[in-house]
């Protein structure tokens, strides 16, 4: 079995664990377009001849471009941050403050990885003013992902990175492309707090727009689109006209984890080459 390639970033909702099952749902094509690239697990573990990888997070895209074009310089600078004296609350908050004050893409990229590995749960979160605000994580010895950075840099030779929203990403698609969408998860219930989604800039309206855009791209332009999301009545309704399948999400039953309810992953494939249904 081919060894799976891990992303170098920790990422909420990352697809590393689901990659084998998810890959089975991805149609063949020349280029994979990802409007929400996140940590890039799907890109790293698939075999398209080229990739268009998009995200609205400028820090993420700048970091990927650096690892793509100047891996040695980046790895040297980032590795210097992974020393015992930097694994400290005061040091972390000092870096976070400096990160929020600088606009230098190289410094921000170095600090971004440091905060990703030293911050709480590998979260990536900004306040309304655009300031990174994840608290310190208190890990014994944060891992420096040198091997993963080099592998990413190697894979990125066939990739183009763009800091754009999902609608613009769809506009750049062409014949021979396959689109994979991994949007922020839809809420598990209509009573779930919407504030987190507003903060992430992805509302229920966006979920519906994305579904419509995907359906039209497949029907009118013959470009297949696969979307993954929580399997809920809402998402099943949103993705009408798609072939639906579920991936069972492993449930870790433990005392501590009992509060974390895991929901199966829904795979919605719009592929009008096999499937015709008018909107």
From TrEMBL:
Keywords: Methyltransferase, S-adenosyl-L-methionine, Transferase
Enzyme Commission numbers on file: 2.1.1.72
Lineage top rank: taxon: Bacteria
SUPFAM superfamilies associated with the record: S-adenosyl-L-methionine-dependent methyltransferases
Enzyme class: transferase
GO BP terms, alphabetized: methylation
Name of the featured protein: Site-specific DNA-methyltransferase (adenine-specific)
Gene3D superfamilies (alphabetical): Adenine-specific Methyltransferase, Domain 2 (1.10.1020.10), Vaccinia Virus protein VP39 (3.40.50.150)
Similarity annotation: Belongs to the N(4)/N(6)-methyltransferase family.
NCBIfam families: dam (TIGR00571)
Catalytic activity field: a 2'-deoxyadenosine in DNA + S-adenosyl-L-methionine = an N(6)-methyl-2'-deoxyadenosine in DNA + S-adenosyl-L-homocysteine + H(+)
UniProt-recorded Gene Ontology molecular function terms: site-specific DNA-methyltransferase (adenine-specific) activity
